[in-house]
Amino acid sequence: MFKKTIPFLLFSFVLVLSYCTLRKADVKTSVKEHLQKSVDTLDQQAAHLLNSANKGEAELRNAFLSTRVAYKKLEWFSEYYAPTTSKELNGAPLPEIEIEETKVFEPSGLQVIEEYVYPYNPATKADLLREIASFRSSLKRLRMILNDTEFTEAHILDACKLEVFRVIGLGISGFDTPLSKTGIEESAVALAAVANVLKLFGENEQLQEQINAAIKYIGKSPDFDRFNRAEFITQYADPISEGILAWQNQLGIQPLNTEMALRNKAATLFDKDAFNINHFVNTAEAMPDAKKIALGKALFFDPVISGATRSCSHCHQPQLAFTDGMAKSAALAEGRFVKRNSPTLMYAGLQDAQFYDMRAKTLEGQATDVIANKDEMHASVEEAARRLEGNSQYFKQFKAAFSTMDNTIRPRYVMIALASYVRSLAPFNSRFDQYMRGNKSKLTANEVNGFNLFMGKAKCGTCHFTPLFNGTAPPTFANTEAEVLGVPADPRAKHPVVDPDEGRSFHSKIEEIKYAFKTPTLRNIALTAPYMHNGAFKTLEEVMDFYEKGGGAGIGIKLDNQTLATDKLNLTEQEKKDIIAFLKALTDE
Question: Where in this chain does the record put each Cytochrome c domain (predicted)?
């Protein structure tokens, strides 16, 4: 009996191996063929859009919306495999700034076209035609990238999961549809596209039912302002991303070897350990671990770094979410203040730029800058390293934390240790986080409504992206954004004027980013008053009023480069209260 079983088992194994080989070949071929048809359809829709520019506004808008729908059907591919070209097709309608090269690149794509269509002005027809032609040129590049792409099953599934995250973080917030407000309906299109790709892997009735349920839910409530985003995410979108990961494991498809900002095993965007902090670290030596974090924490609270004048905690106090509660932080000289206030260090490790003006790309660079600043510490990392070397206890800690260290504490070790501690300040344990992970008792009805307003009608989520609620855009979290809000020097003045701090342009002298400041995290915002880089607003109520009016433009400050929408939000007093209630639920416990 045993001898007869062996040939049968071998035959079965060969059958399974053959099936897996065929499935992989079929999936990769089918995905490429499916995408090629989608690109053809998008090109045809773009051609129709071009012709519609000669017709009425209604037909033009219909053609535009059809083009957007066609794009959404292949967004999962373009954003994942061709991110640069994807920017050309559907990037933000703002100039892209290359600070290092002092270059400004004009925006292009569907979001730019939208501004010509809503509303349509026949006088701008030539500009509209030029943008559509540019879009079709970018589409040719996407086609070439598609033809050259070698697909793997793991990458395809990863791209599908990230598209679900993109729907959560960008789609339902209306990030790329601010004027047409079709983000909710388009999210259904994006999910349907994911479903079509997943079908190529075989039958998974449960996963397909989950996606169909999400699409059906959107169909029942497509109204942008009233859409229940909290319910959609927790009851529909999260189960889809969880289902994709579970099915990948069921199919025996190994996860990718490399991890990006999100861990490959993250089932949802709100998993406690979803973020891979090492992705935001520049060198292997700087990867944080328990020993480096402990050392960095000791240094953070010890004035030894500055030569006994002050410690990092002087301006970054834990009980205030690592701020200091001042409009502008106190300088070393008595009675004097630095240019700006102390931003929170919570979640600072999950962004690619530091300081309000984004002049430092790393936390190590930030530490060096602060230590050297004559108004803040007026010291040097080199001197700090020499002082620490003479301290036997610190010497032992450095030796334990850095395996390559000889008998010298290098300045970079000091910076890495401090940065490692700051990178550890991302607990993700607010009541909001607990709610999103299933504990529905953690938020009140008003707080849930506040989140829905934040992500929808109030437009907050188009700059403060969930789940970090800073300017680092999901799902790749590759770039941290800055905005020109028109923050006043004194909002209580009879005729407010813009704060003279030039922000990002102070160092670059690029006019387009004059008065632009990094979009900070809103996590723990209840503890970080006063608000804005200059502490102009004392309360969250004042901040809400500023945004309600349309930023600086709404209080009489004219800035041609204001990036914040200048139209009023038309929020009721209760809606403002609900948003503030939600913001307070972002305080870590």
Answer: 445-587
Q: What confidence tens digit (pLDDT) does each residue in 277-321 have?
A: 999 999 999 999 999 999 999 999 999 999 988 999 999 999 999
Cis peptide before 427 (omega within 30 of 0): no
Kindly state the helix (H) or strand (E) to which residue 517 belongs, with its residue range. Answer: strand 516-518
Does this model's pTM top 0.85? My answer is yes
Three-class SS state of 453: helix
Rg of the chain's alpha carbons, rounded to an integer? Answer: 26
Choose among 109, 104, 71, 79: nearest CA to 186: 71
What is the DSSP track for 345-368? -TTTTSSS-BSTT--BSSHHHHHH
State the angle between helix axes of 125-148 and 2-52 in degrees (0 to 180), rounded to the nearest 10. 160
* CB of 145 closer than 8 Å to CB of 66: no
When pLDDT is cut at 50, 70 and 90, the band that residue 94 belongs to is: confident
d(CA 16, CA 21): 9
pLDDT of residue 367: 95
182: number of Cβ within 10 Å: 20
Say if residues 68 and 186 touch (Cβ distance below 8 Å): yes
Residue pair 488/500 in contact by the 8 Å Cβ criterion = no
Query: Rounded to an integer, what distance in angstroms lies between the CA atom of residue 462 and that of residue 481?
Result: 11
Beta carbons of 458 and 569 less than 8 angstroms apart = yes
Dihedral angle sign, alpha carbons of residues 155, 158, 164, 169 = negative
Bridge partners for 517 per DSSP: 483
Distance CA 408, CA 404 (A): 10
The residue type found at 475 is P
